[in-house]
Specification:
With 169 residues, the chain is mainly alpha-helical. It folds into two domains: 31 residues; 110 residues, Orthogonal Bundle (MetI-like fold), CATH 1.10.3720.10. Helix content is 76%, strand content 0%. The model has no long low-confidence stretch (mean pLDDT 89).
């Protein structure tokens, strides 16, 4: 009971500080957000004004590139492991590899992409960043897709087959 009380007090204190900081930021920062802030480039250091347009565009580009790489491969691995692989040695090896790659730090993916893409081309690019993020995304998507597909009951699968839907659909 004492541990529960201490935990509750610590949680309430932490949440109180969090909401105080959030409220402070909203009250003092809401006036700075306007259309010009979203569409203009940053101002020089020491000058007033400026915006975040390049940051928003860069984030959108990186998210798009990483999604184009990570989602199809990850979902493909997940569908393969859930629907087609069964309990073969290759499927077990692939599951172990995916579970291992989920735990790999992101810096490892970054260094890998640096040596295979950035260093040979002698330039940093959004493609390199997107590739690194896509590599990080693949095992997460594969594991998630496999787990979600395993939640589909066999009765639903059999009903689909009985209606003439191919297994791959």
């Amino acid at each position: 009971m004492l541990a529960f009380g201490c935990t509750a007090v610590a949680t309430l204190l932490s949440l109180g500080v969090l909401f105080w900081m959030l409220g402070y930021l909203v009250i003092h920062g809401i006036g700075a957000i306007n259309w010009n802030f979203l569409v203009k480039e940053p101002a020089a250091v020491g000058e007033a004004g400026g915006g975040v347009a390049p940051s928003l565009l860069g984030t959108a580009i990186l998210a798009t590139i990483s999604s184009i790489i990570g989602i199809p491969l990850g979902v493909g691995f997940g569908v393969y492991l859930s629907e087609l692989a069964g309990d073969t040695a290759f499927a077990r090896f692939t599951r172990v590899a995916i579970n291992t790659f989920i735990g790999v730090p992101s810096i490892v993916a970054g260094i890998f992409v640096y040596f295979i893409l950035v260093k040979p081309t002698h330039t940093f690019s959004a493609v390199a960043g997107g590739l690194a993020l896509g590599i990080i995304m693949i095992p997460i998507m594969a594991r998630t897709a496999e787990d979600v597909l395993r939640l589909v009951p066999d009765s639903i699968r059999e009903a689909g087959l009985a209606l003439g839907i191919p297994q791959w659909q």
